[in-house]
Amino acid sequence: MNTMNPTVTSETGAGVVEDKVAPVKEERPAEAELEEGVTVGTPYSDDPKFKLRNVEVFYGESRAIKNISLDIARNEVIAFIGPSGCGKSTFLRCLNRMNDSIDICKVKGSLQLDDNDIYDPSRDVVELRARVGMVFQKPNPFPKSIYDNVAYGPRIHGLANRKSDLDDIVENSLRKAGLWNEVKDRLDATATGMSGGQQQRLCIARTIAVSPEVVLMDEPCSALDPIATAKVEELIAELSESYTIVIVTHSMQQAARVSHRTAYFHLGHLVEVNETNKVFTSPEHNMTESYITGRFG
Ligand SMILES: Nc1ncnc2c1ncn2[C@@H]1O[C@H](COP(=O)(O)OP(=O)(O)O)[C@@H](O)[C@H]1O
Ligand SMILES: [Mg+2]
């Protein structure tokens, strides 16, 4: 193939315009096209795990989340997508008060988990984070043994009275994370010596060891190779039987593979929420369409 040829052909073969080069990235539509607080599609649910209303998040004077309302249904997998900097991580971190540690960050609006205020000042944040666990972009195992990484949460939450109970929790969590067979003979080995993909599955095992109700994942596969990514995606599908999962991803293919609903964010607005299939085949909002067809991002 002649890479010098300036004529770009579309990968799909559809809608090829012969005399034009590929659409320019970073061509971001004006914010004026967005109406604050308006989300097209199906942002609400009959059986919400999270009920989020008129959420705004500020970093100092700057408003990173602009009046977002959304329900996250019990046992659904919802994907958050959108251009970098549009507020996906910020919004995700509101769900277990991970933003509390950022001094200049202020969260406004109503955020409920099972009809109880997440931001109630009397709420025990450690307990909240056990119920709403989090997996980060970069696997961050503790510099301890594989066993101790998984046993850490159950120990601090007093979930096991006897060594054999703790052993069971560790084994079950590693099994659910699809890691047991790979590590059962070296539970005393240091976790930081594992491969990246194994470390990420270990972090998932550590999160589920405290029996959370919700797992938040912020680009959990962006540091992984395709094989490790496939394993984590398989795991998400299995976990979705018992947990509510919110996943931020920059990969639209990943969102399409793992999620039931997809939420499209843009410049701090929640533009569209719909069944994932609909978002990727017939999006309702023209900005969603621009994003998924690669006109900006
Ligand atoms: N700790 C922080 N302090 C100040 N501004 C922040 C902080 N984290 C994020 N922001 C700003 O908030 C906006 C949303 O960021 P973020 O939630 O990280 O977006 P995304 O995850 O979609 O890439 C960006 O403008 C970003 O610069
Ligand atoms: Mg982010």
From TrEMBL:
InterPro entries: AAA+_ATPase, ABC_transporter-like_ATP-bd, ABC_transporter-like_CS, P-loop_NTPase, PstB-like
Chain intervals with Polar residues compositional bias: 1-12
Biased composition annotated in UniProt, kind: Basic and acidic residues: 17-31
Pfam families: ABC_tran
Cellular component GO terms held in the UniProt record: membrane
Gene Ontology BP terms: phosphate ion transmembrane transport
Chain residue ranges for the region called Disordered: 1-35
Start and end residues of each ABC transporter domain: 50-292
Protein name per its UniProtKB record: Phosphate ABC transporter ATP-binding protein
Organism: Marinobacter salinexigens
Taxonomic classification: Bacteria, Pseudomonadati, Pseudomonadota, Gammaproteobacteria, Pseudomonadales
